[in-house]
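Re: the 186-residue chain
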Amino acid sequence: MSEGFTPDKPILMGRIGAAHGIRGEVRITPFTQDPLALASFDPLETDRPGLVVSITRARLAKTVLIATLKGVTDRNAAEALNGVSLYVARDRLDAPEDDEFYHADLIGLEVRLDDGAVLGTISAVENFGSDDLLDVRLAGGRKSVYLPFTRAVVPEIQIAQGYVVAVPPEGWLDDTPRDPDDVDPQ
C-alpha cells in the first residue's frame, strides 16, 4: 500500500521564507487556492518540534503573504523562521469533493503506465511557476523524473487503491534525467 492518503497526515499549507523589513514580518509562500486563507488557520503546526505559529496580520504581495506572527517582533526572530513549513491537521479542512484531493494524498502513490507496468513512486508535487509536476522516483533505481500533472499525462488517480496511471509523452523518460550521475557527459 502507498504512503499517500492517511486521515491523520497533516496538510502542508505554506512555507515561511525571508524576513520582510525590521519589525518581524515574514514572507510566506502559501500552498492554498486562496493565499489569504492561510491566515484563517490558527494555530499552524510546523516542522520544528514544539513550534506552533499564529498569523496575527497578513497581506498579499504578488504571490507571497507578508505576515506578522504572534511573538515575532524583530528581524532576527523573523530570520530564524526562514524555511519553516506550516501545516494544518486534515480534520480542520473541508473534505475534498469526489474528484478532488490534496497534493499530500499523492505522495507515496505508485505510478503505473497504462499497460500496468510500475514506473515508480510519487515523491513530491512541485510547481516552479507554471504547472504542477509530479516528481517520480523510478522503480529500481535512484533516477527520478518530473511528469506534467495534467489530465492527458495522468488520466487516472486512484488514491484509495494507492496508484495513479501515467501516459508520459513520447520520449519523456529518455530525455529527462534528474540526477547528475544520469546525465551523459558527451
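The helical segments are 75-79, 172-175.
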